[in-house]
Structure formats: structure tokens, C-alpha cells
Design a protein that fits this description.
Number of strands: 14
CATH superfamily of the largest domain: Type I PLP-dependent aspartate aminotransferase-like (Major domain)
Strand content: 5-15%
Structural class: alpha/beta
Shape: globular
CATH topology of the largest domain: Aspartate Aminotransferase, domain 2
Distance between the termini: 59 Å
Helix content: 25-40%
Number of domains: 2
Number of helices: 17
Radius of gyration: 22 Å
Strand order of the largest sheet: 2-8-7-6-5
CATH class of the largest domain: Alpha Beta
Amino acid sequence: MSKDQPKTMGQQFGRRSWAEPWKIKMVEPIRIKTPEQRLAAIEEAGYNTFLLRSEDVYIDLLTDSGTSAMSDRQWSGMLAGDEAYAGSRNFYRLEQAVRRYYGYRFVVPTHQGRGAEHLISQALIREGVTIPGNMYFTTTRLHQELAGGTFVDVIIDEAHDPQSQHPFKGNVDLQKLEQVILEVGPEQIPYISLAGTVNMAGGQPVSMANVKGLRELCDRYSIKIYLDATRMVENCFFIQEREEGYRGRTIESLLLEFCSYTDGAWMSAKKDSLVNIGGWLAINDEEVFEIARNLVVVYEGLHTYGGLAGRGMEALAIGIEESVADDHVRTRVDQVRYLGNLLASWDIPIVQPVGGHAVFVDAKSFFPHIPQSQFPAQTLAAELYLDSGVRSMERGVASAGRDPETGEHRYPKLELTRLTIPRRVYTQAHMDVVAESVKAVFEGRDSVRGLRMVYEPRYLRFFQARFERI
């Protein structure tokens, strides 16, 4: 190349540029609404981004759940759906894929992850028991509470510090856990609720060493471990990248090893597995499997479809295979990091290290003048939409809900606004638009007012609550 030729971005910084490991075959047009239209839309939605109509959204970073783009192989697989009520061949394809890539013996399909959470909660939890876990997740904790259990957080302290650079902030604090076991008795703990890439902590991973230590501790007390495997391929990427002894391993092999230290898993396949709907519960214990297989008929559908169409199970089986490809996972995480690093370079407070599925903005630090009782994370989500039509979501006091005993708001240490990146959907240019919108709101943050809640549903209030400006 002559000295007069322009350099690529990669050459300017002494590296080779990378590109997504796919090419675009079909597009969906998106249009940005005017500022006046956005104001009318967010007011009609009660300043809750979940209540916005999708047609009013420009770049949708509400969630990565069911919003990813399926591949040509998945779409062609949809045409091979066996829609038999019982014994669909697509169920056996799905069962084979879960056994191969996750390693569990028995598989129960469900319509999505919370269906699987419900089944395992009903099968194993009784009134008065304790379920320790590495930070709560909204639907998981609710199912555990509705079944009569009490969730206890045993995640390491670093998980509650958005600026901590701990490489595995999703780890279980084994000392905290053992203290809980000794306080309530192992017979009062039906299982440990372990989540990979902990969502509420900012998409933070669990190390292989930690799950091994957890397995050893639980074996001493004869306690089961059940895994929320929703984003485990991203968790395995961080193990591959950060944990000594695993750099040369494939995502596929790391996933299989990690799951081998647990007794079963529930899965929202709408994330890692690249489908728009679907989930499963996988179990090694045949007795527990029999309970779940019976319950799925009551709540979801027959045990060979569990609320899914045959074509959906086929797309899911293919998606599981595609999800463990190293280049796919690396590109997915790198896109999230691109957005996070851009925001951090502008001194915008985000959770560090950047997680696997989303960038979490620290709304407490972003709006230091807005008290947590005035929902700063919800406020930030609304302000981003007003600025650019970008839809994000709250992960703070609104998501935490109320204490079932006192009725008071739970005030988590983390008050976060989540910018969640769908898989294989948006380009780097979209990430630039998002980053510039966050920066614009940050520069005008001193004039922003908080919110008050004017409508609150009984369960999972963040989905349907309504707010107004103070």
C-alpha cells in the first residue's frame, strides 16, 4: 500500500479489523419518530419503556430475549416442523441437542424460561425452605416465593460494586453459603440457584473454579445445584478468556464441563439459542424428571412439546448448535464491549467489566441528584427514549419490587439502566447512535427530574408499572 492511500481503522491502531461472521440477507426497515411523537409515546406509556409500542422505537435494546436474528438454517428448519400433538420428531432433535451440548439426561420443553422456573420450583420447593443463589433474578425469585421458599443472596461482595474489576463477579461466596447452610440446616435447602453471567449484576460470569468449589461444598451437605443456563455460552467465553488453564478450550467443551458440576438447568432459549420463543428444563435425577414431566402437562403442554410448535423446537435445536460456535460468541461479546468501551471513554459510569449481553449504566452515579426512591434507572430509560428513540430498560428499585413481609420498596445496591444487545441484529453504526444518545443525556443530566410510580401491579411490577415526572 502506498503512503498516500488511506488506512483502515484497524491499520491506524496497529491491528487487523474484524467483521461479523455473517452477511445480511433480509432487512426490516426502522424509522425514528419526531421528538414530539416520542414525548407523546412515552407519556402514553407512563414513562415505562415496556409499555411503548415497538413501532414507536428506533433502536430496540429493551432485551436480548427473543429478539435475535435467526439463521438461514433455522428458517429452513422451520419448514420441517412436525406438528404432531404427541411424539414430534422435532422434540427428539431438541432432546439430542441439549444432551450433546449441555450434558443433562432428561429434557422437558417449555414455552420459555419462566415456564421451566415454575416447574422446578413446584417440583422441589415446599413452604418455609431457603434457596440460596448468586443474586436474584426477577422471575426466578418470584416463582421460588410463590412456591413457599425464601431466596437468600450469596454472591460475592464485588458483584454489588459497579466499579470493581473482579473478573468473575458472578461467583458464589462459598463462606456466605456455608453460613446459610449451617443456620437453616441442609435439609431446608432444596437446591442452590446458580446463574451464569448474572444478569442483575451486569452480565457478570461465574468461574470454573467457583462452580467446582460449589460442587464440593454441596456434596458435603448433600445439596443439589440447579443452573440458570440462559446465557451460559457467554459465561464460557469469559472463562476461556480470563481463567488460567482454559484459553485453548472451545466454548462447546467449556459449556459441557461447567454443566457437569450441576444437577440440572432451566433455560430461556430466547437468549443464547437464537430463537424468538422457547425454553427447557433439563434434569439428571429421574425422580425429579418424572415430577416435572407430569407437571408440564398441567401447565405447558404435553411432555414432547411443552408449549412449543414442532417448527419452533427444530429452530431451537439448530440454534443450540450455532450458539456454541467460538467466532459467533466472540463477535457477540465484542459488540457489547464496543458500546461499553465507548461510553467508558467518555467517563459515563457503567458497570465494569462490561458484561456479555448488555451494557449497564450506573444510574445512581449518572443522576446523583435523583434519590433511589424516585427511580433514577427508570428515569434514564425514559430520557434515552426521548432523546433518540432508543429503548432500554430499568434494573433497579422498580425491578426489585417490595419486601413481601414489610411491603416496603427493596432498595438494591445496584441501580442500573440496561442497554441490551440482540444477537445478529444491529451494526456498529447502531452502537454509535446509542452511545451518542447516552452521552447527550449525560451532558444534560442536571436538568432531569425523577419519577413517581402512579400504578403498581402486584407481581413483577417493572413490566406494567406506570410513572409520571416529578
